[in-house]
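S.,

As promised, the nicotinamide-adenine-dinucleotide run. Input:
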Amino acid sequence: MSVAVTKSSETTNQAVKLHPDVIDTTEEEVLKAVERAREEFSIWSALSFKERAKHLAKVRKLLAESADEIVDVIVSDTGKVPTEALVNEVVVTVELMRWYGANGEKALAPTKVNPGILMAHKSGEIRYEPYGVVGIISPWNYPLTLSMGPIVAALFAGNTVVVKPSEVTPHVGIAVGELFKKVANEVGAYHNLVQVITGPGKVGDTLVRSGVDKVAFTGSVKTGQAVMKAAAETLTPVVLELGGKDPMIVLADADIDRAARGAVWGAFTNSGQTCMAVERVYVEKEAYQPFLDKVVEITSKLKQGSGDGFDLGAMTWKRQKDIVRAHLDDAISKGAVVAAGGNDLIVGGRESIEPTVLVNVNHSMAIMTEETFGPILPIMEVANEKEALELANDSIYGLNSSVWGKDPQALDRVASGLQAGNVCINDTMVSYALSALPFGGVKYSGIGRTHGVEGLRSMTQTKSIARDRFGLKTEMQWMPLPSWLGKGAKLLLKLRK
Ligand code: NAD
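Predicted complex:
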């Protein structure tokens, strides 16, 4: 593996406040931002979908045109390689905006329902109405797409937004705010569609308690629980996109080359700091050795460093690197063996770890049960499909997952058996890039969905409209109750049971 190493004296100063240049928004300012967003809501929500989409197309265009500048900010805040930021953040976001623009109107159009035979004299309709102000709290690992995803869903649906980016990557959040500001200046309107507040968790907590009408949170399980608890006080609805420990199952008949390459990308892109990264692999015994050999071969050729020309960059910050190192050390102390990588190193001034392949692993190790969120790929041999599924589901998490093989029935069987919000077949993580597919987790991986029709509708509240069709003077169940109603109802039950 070739590595771009800098001296440890150049290590990023990861003191308590990572970005002293960024001011923490005060409680008073958070409340004012929400107030301004509420005023803007009265204007923005009154627009037609087409008018909103026209404005957001300008933002999309500006984002695409500013890709180089935005990528620079992402790279500077996260330490990932530029191409990765471009592909997995900017392109994915632009495509998602295109999808909402093209499909959002239909997804949010009022829907007629069948009233049923007994209610044939009524008509029913579902309307999707925006909540008002949506508070968005985002993490540091994909700071652009995980802020912009919920922001644009909220906006297309007619809401306005106050967003708090992670304190680890605040400049990306600020750049997102600038995009919206530039377009607002150009059209001379909608200056408070998206307001960015900055600071640590307590600023996020203030936002949750500020009277926003919906909270969309992406981050860890622990913080997600705190957010839900705070939101419960005002019964503010939440979408929670939380952590994962995503399993990959390799069946005996899998294409070994493809599966190995998929595992390496799924585990190591963004240095494994991906909620839907491949965090553990279960391989049927017939495929185990060839799969492992191929994974080790590819991993040992990976180029890790900062800047273009590398396959993976740095870990974003020391706290995460320390968690990964602790998981690695725990596994090794319990008998795990490093098949590739395993060393600490400094990449672009940040403490990192080499892409590492681990074998001899089992579920007594944190590396197989807790979210590692780093460039580690533990691989375990299993006897058969049944054991693979049992181990894959032996987790509190259920975000993404994958199964690799050739027999369509086996692939379908495993996909059905996996306890996860998303399953990829002969691929990994790609479900996130299919904008039409709802994305989200089961179990401790979260509540609610982003992307697709479900993601858009999750930024709305449904209003049910029941309408009388014929304008009769009375209804049979109205007062005074007709004497025959009781008997009539019993007869009806006999007929309809
Ligand atoms: P985190 O929970 O530490 O922080 C997330 C955000 O919450 C930050 O902006 C933080 O300032 C804020 N926050 C902290 N305390 C808060 C509080 N009490 N109230 C409100 N906001 C608060 O998570 P992180 O370390 O930034 O991100 C990594 C985690 O995010 C991983 O667990 C990863 O799996 C998860 N994640 C999930 C998805 C998904 O879509 N499911 C995507 C990316 C990351």
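The first helix runs from residue 27 to 44. Residues 137-141, 146, 164, 166-167, 200-201, 204-205, 208, 218-220, 223, 226-227, 241-244, 275, 371, 373, 399, 441, 446 surround nicotinamide-adenine-dinucleotide (CB under 6 Å).

- D.
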